[in-house]
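Lab notes, practical 5.
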Amino acid sequence: MKLAIIPARGGSKRIPRKNIKLFCGKPMLAWSIEAARDSACFDRIIVSTDDAEIAAIARQFGADVPFTRSPALSDDHTGVTPVIAHAIGWMNANGPQPVELACCIYATAPFVSATDLRRGLDTLVQEKCDYALAVTSFPFPIQRAIRLTANRRIEMFRPEHFTTRSQDLEEAWHDAGQFCWGKASAWLTDVPVFAQGAAPVVLPRHRVQDIDTPEDWQRAELMFQLLARGPQ
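Output from the prediction step:
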């Protein structure tokens, strides 16, 4: 079985009810569900949540919510891997067939596309890796990053690169915050995602936006509306 798992707990702090807040006319969660459905990659799409309202909206947009996530897996300190592993374990114990491949799709990823989800599956299968992770590049060389000191002054994280030309520095990448395909066995045994067992699914920066603050939200909606008007 190929399983889509969308983690969506109810306790968002910085943007209350973020997972179901309306984003460009739909609950945020709905965009992830629809991309998963449109990809035709999955035998089943489930939402892992501890919240009854989120569960109802998930079902409204076509996802299954076969269990209620426990409080122990719904606090501010629980990582994604235990949540995915729990969902796979539950499905293996209660479903008609075992999970072979599982894709974590974030609930707050309105830019996730069916095409990219299919690319992720192809990457996982062709590369014979543990995971296929959506990534994008940093727009500025991280080796030339600066910090603000306690006395409100500036210093470099890597002072040795003060005179290094940007084009001579290694390009750096980060998790795009959209999806991660993986073998069920990798999720269940806590194989690290940011490691040699993971292959990249590269996304353009203009289709990646972390959404943690109201300012992020406003920017993401503007980007989304612009993309909807023209080719991507």
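Observations recorded by the TA: Strands lie at 2-7, 22-23, 26-27, 44-48, 101-105, 131-137, 146-148, 154-156, 173-183, 198-202. The longest helix spans residues 80-94.
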